[in-house]
Amino acid sequence: MTWVYAVTLLILLISLIVGVWRVIQGPRLADRLLAAQLFGTTGVAVLLLLAELQSLPAARDTALVLALLAMLAAVAFVSRVWKVRPDSEDRP
Amino acid sequence: MNLLIDFTLLIGILAIALTCLISRSLFRSVVFFILLGLMLAIGWIRLGAPDIALAEAAIGAGITGVLLLDTLGHLKKTGNLENDEPAPGRKRLILAIVSSFTLVGLLLWAVFNQPTPAINIHLLVTEAMPESGVSHPITAVLLNFRSYDTLLEVGVLVLAVLVGLALQTDQQAQDSLPGLPNPLLHACLTLLIPAMLITSMYLLWAGADRPGGAFQAGAMLAAAFILLHISGIKLSSQVSHRMMQAGLLLGFGVFLAVATSSLIGGRPLLTYPEGGAGMLILLIELALTLSIGLILLSLFTIANSPPHHKDQGGDHGH
């Protein structure tokens, strides 16, 4: 079973690194932040897999914290950055 | 396979850190900073250090990211965000590269030339564990064996928020931004806030025998407060100003009171009475959690206060 975890983990990590491209590319601010949100979800999956792979139950707590706090960045973005000047989205 | 996973993680962390630094757009840098926190949390788990991973996930990826986004919004609103910053001159660039590589070299030298410790700290902690009042070694070190460091850390946090409050001029003008009237957000919050509060208390309780503790719990509490604040439920309008100030100082006060009360019994500073250590540590951590939550919330709301008139005058001068 361990190798299944390891392979899944590797695929998720590679997908994280591919996701970096979307953050760099944009083109809009919202695209970048949504890519970051995807990172959060994938990060939770990676942590849960690591908890199994390394038999480290505390990794699940970390995943829990990450899952609960992931929304914070999106909400802060919408309320603080996005609304200020929506017309200038392409020029951060 | 393990090597491949570690290698991918390492490449990812380095790439994200580098992009965060060299990105010309501040927003992109902030997003990469959040991603860096996430990757570092995974990295710490990989290294078998769940305590640091938990702190990194809560404070690095969660709270700091929000504070930076908030600051960015504030900079935009006040027009202090310069988009067309000129590229640094050649000489300055070379100087920066040389100095940063020198620093990296020095750090590497320091890592590889670590002096062998005269005493085995690991063994000392393990031997003293039964007297510490908790069963998780990290908590025992942070709140019993080296509680001096933690006390000063909390002092630094209190100092930071005091400076922030001092810079804030008009108390009434605080919370100038209206709450988001989004029904989806409010529906989400009714599910999220209870989960966050329970998790916060869980992390606090878990600190006694598992990774967790006041800082992580405080960050989680602050996250719940900040979400409520953004959605329009302001804690500062529910609680009086005095209560808020008392809450900010509560953790440091309780910690200091426990630390100095041992002097009355003739024991040295920052020691616990025999048998009562566990209870006192829990009391300190409970107070610290509340205070850290309020301090982080205050740091967030201070940034939202409208710009000073003096600053606006400066803007016109440009």
Describe the protein in words.
The complex is a heterodimer of chains A (92) and B (318). Chain A has 3 helices and no strands. By secondary structure, chain A is mainly α. In chain A, helix 1 runs antiparallel to helix 2 and helix 2 runs antiparallel to helix 3. The C terminus of chain A is likely disordered. Chain B has 13 helices and no strands. In chain B, 35% of the residues are buried. Chains A and B meet through helix 1, helix 2 and helix 3 of A and helix 1, helix 2, helix 3, helix 8 and helix 9 of B.
List the defining traits of the structure above.
heterodimer; A: 3 helices; B: 318 residues; mainly alpha; globular
Relative helix content of chain A: over 70%
- How does the major sheet of chain B shape up? none
Biggest sheet character of chain A: none
The helix count of chain B comes to 13
| DSSP strand count of chain B | 0
Query: Which structural class should the secondary elements of chain A be placed in?
Result: mainly alpha
In percent, how much strand structure appears in the residues of chain B? under 5%
* Uncertain parts of chain A: 88-92
